């Protein structure tokens, strides 16, 4: 036994599962906790890791052969909430593109990583003989060297955390946690946001660690159709009910028997029947079929680092683009130029909706035609306001400033929340939602003003299998209408909707 809970009931009623928790994780098992959005996966993990204290009983641990005794020393939980800071509230949307705001005394990613490793080495050396301490240190050093190679950590060592792409940030967090040498590591959807090659390398590394070390891995998965082969058992969760632990093979067989529900005909028709805008009267919009955006030899640099170089790219009205590439290749940077979030756009030869940037247009004229969602945007929504207020902010393109929607605006917001299946969450505050529900809320925000240009940067992050299927159908249906242009980013080819007809692949510059 490594972790055991018997009749576990949390002290706080708001943290409880549907029944008392009874779980035992044994030596030799590698676990996936799997379930739909808001099923209770994160709540169970908080119980397993003793973050939610229990009535009467306590969680029982056996971390042997680790000589360390404290839970915090042996068990690490990494949630990948796309966090660029320390949850101190100082991060703001667009900060990644305004790096002049960064204090020059801020430590780099490399410095933070080395400090984490130093602290881990000091704690793990206590109580060991000199020979055992040296052997353990050699093993950690070997692992850290492997992590450096897999994640190309040397390329981000001199970057500030705020400068990292979403994928690079995940690599940094993985290296920091794995490199500390925990006995148990719990990871929330560790593969999303990573490019295909890095996902494969990470799977291979985790499998190797399960074979060669005593590491227990617990994966918390919404993307349950992609469970790694090294996982031996699955703990399914449905509606706060913890189902019996089964083998990975048994779970996959059950999964195949569950058909995906299509988007209802009523919702599909509602989208198709949305009133057609008269864009001929819009002064800041091109004629039908003409260029929506055009990049002419665009180069973006931060200090000595070149992100984009001599990029030429044209998107015509009605085209549907897949934007893909390696982590750190500049995908989000490119989209920040389109969405008027990056001040470097003014120094580049970029045309949006037929107008050259910097010729007197306001960012609001640009944003009025754009619906946008991204990991950076998700990170910026830290206010615990009603979900409908978050959706309504898409009508005015505000992030950080919120006003209660007028009655007619509320009806529009509720209609789009209904399309995404979250209408009943309208008055629940944003930070009380699961990460998947939050992503659906931000997706509704992107669609709420019926934009002409839809820019979706990793839109399916953290969504379960059914929700990913429905969102793809919503995108397809929406983009079948006249004057709709799409640019979408994802690292999973199967997540691209059928309407995609163009592609751009960016390679990371050495």
Could you explain how this protein is built, in words?
The protein is α/β, with parallel strands linked by helices and 510 residues long. The chain has a domain at 265-506: Rossmann fold (3-Layer(aba) Sandwich). Helix content is 33%, strand content 19%. It is built from 15 helices and 19 strands. The protein has helices spanning 41-48, 71-74, 109-124, 130-151, 166-178, 196-212, 248-256, 265-272, 331-338, 363-367, 375-380, 387-396, 407-419, 435-447, 465-479; strands at 3-8, 21-25, 31-35, 60-61, 75-78, 184-188, 216-221, 233-238, 241-242, 246-247, 291-302, 305-316, 320-325, 350-352, 355-356, 370-373, 453-457, 485-489, 502-506. The strands form four sheets. Strands 3, 5, 6, 7, 8, 9 and 10 form a seven-stranded mixed beta sheet that branches. Helix 4 runs antiparallel to helix 5, helix 12 crosses helix 13 (407-419) and helix 12 packs parallel to helix 14. The longest helix has 22 residues, at 130-151. It is globular. Residues 82-93 have low confidence and may be disordered.
Which homologous superfamily in CATH is the superfamily of the domain at 265-506? P-loop containing nucleotide triphosphate hydrolases
Strand-pairing-aware structural class? alpha/beta
Return Rg in Å.
24 Å
User: If classified by CATH, what would the architecture of the domain at 265-506 be?
Assistant: 3-Layer(aba) Sandwich
What general form does the structure show?
A: globular
> How many beta-strand runs?
19
Low-confidence stretches: 82-93
According to CATH, the fold-level topology of the domain at 265-506 is: Rossmann fold
Q: Helical residue percent? A: 25-40%
The biggest sheet amounts to: 7 strands, mixed
How many alpha or pi helices?
A: 15
**Residue-averaged pLDDT:** 87
Oligomer description: single chain
